[in-house]
Amino acid sequence: EIELTQSPGTLSLSPGERATLSCRASQSVRSSFLAWYQQKPGQAPRRLISGASSRATGIPDRFSGSGSGTDFTLTISRLEPEDFAVYYCQQYGSSPHTFGQGTKLEIK
Amino acid sequence: EVQLVQSGAEVKKPGESLKISCKGSGYSFISYWIGWVRQMPGKGLEWMGIIYPGDSDTRYSPSFQGRVTISADKSISTAYLQWSSLKASDTAMYYCARMAVAGGTDAFDIWGQGTMVTVSS
Question: Mean of the per-residue pLDDT values for chain B?
Answer without folding.
Answer: 97
